Amino acid sequence: xxxxxxxxxxxxxxxxxxxxxxxxxxxxxxxxxxxxxxxxxxxxxxxxxxxxxxxxxxxxxxxxxxxxxxxxxxxxxxxxxxxxxxxxxxxxxxxxxxxxxxxxxxxxxxxxxxxxxxxxxxxxxxxxxxxxxxxxxxxxxxxxxxxxxxxxxxxxxxxxxxxxxxxxxxx
Length: 171
Prior knowledge:
By secondary structure, this protein is mainly α. The protein contains 9 helices and no strands.
């Protein structure tokens, strides 16, 4: 749980400032997550805004009892899926654009080496990149990632372990 339960309760009671605090806290992190999955910044902005519109509606209808990181990322992921369903072709973003907009170059990986992330990302599938991004750039726990991607926590841990091994072989 995040420390904004009071803001959630206040927002449900009609306090616009409480909702604004929730928005300000989560917008940038969600935008980066979405931006890494679409080719146009404008689409990322629209999708991120849709997350907050749906959140606002759910809060007003009192369908939400608590907020968590996994809740936000699950909602963003569902809206991304809807976006791609409506769109005939999937805009797969290039690794260069992710690096340019996501500011992820030369991140330190869990095994301690600083490496050229751009080259490593090209070796991973879209699903593998998503798991790495959720874990290391969005700081979600394996339990939170499991909720977002609808898998068991053990499966996420194993997948992350395999991905890290795969990345190590390319260093």
